[in-house]
Amino acid sequence: MPEFYGSLLKLAREAEGWPQAKLSERSGIAQGSISKYEKGLQQPSASQVAALGNALGFSPGFFEDAEARPAAVMYRSRSLRSARLEAHVRARLNLSRLVVQRLIADVEVDTVARFPDPDTSFPSPEAAADQLRAAWWIGPGPIDAICDYIEAAGGVVVRTDLGTDLAVAAYMHPLSDPVRWFFVNTRVSTGDRVRFSLAHELGHATLHEGGLAPDTREAENESNLFAGALLLPKRDLQGGLPRGRLRLEHLLELKRHWGASMQTIAMRAHQIGAISRTELSRIFREISAR
Hints:
This protein is of the alpha+beta class. Helices cover 52% and strands 7% of the residues. It has a 4-stranded mixed sheet with strand order 1-3-4-2, sandwiched between helices. β3 and β4 form a beta hairpin. α1 packs across α5 and α6 packs across α9. The chain is elongated.
């Protein structure tokens, strides 16, 4: 009998959002046995593998794939309130990657650009965004289809249901995998959020391949700064800002041009020194009120 990989059983179970007790109830297998299977302490019989697969909706062969391994994930989210929910999101991301990996296994892609080397150091997220624009031949002004640029460099962009509205997008680059994976939650439909979220994950791919823990506040702040600078370059945005007070009607026109939310544009205007923190707070209050 082929070897059974408990890590894949755990992945499938967490992708469903089930605790071991629920899988035990659905499969008729004792929870203690399931725990041992997942930890690799015991191998299930063929009939037990079939029962687990039927309960979870997987063929027995899925649990025997030696090349299928879960990987670490960087993702843009609001607070995931529990360890179980975080495991659920990570499992769905890994499962999506494994499925798409099979689908594109025989597809050859000619890349016309490259991601920065992991050892590349940048003086700031703003400088990193400017250098990436130049390296990827992105001209001045708005980026209409950021996924086109990611895919031209060999990345893969996937839309997938992450099982919650709290996680927006994710980035993954498993060891020994030549592909860099970018995910967007299918529950996010507005174009400006998708665009900024992909730019945020591209920030992780550019800035954090070499070491900084991706789930730290520092890494998130850096990726937000990178995304703002990539989508709204300082020189280009400055030329379009009005003289004097920045009003909502100005932001609406800028939104139409740049394809970014009014909040993102206002925050970027503050980052480049065009408006004060007090003005930024006023704008956010006005947007909220309307």
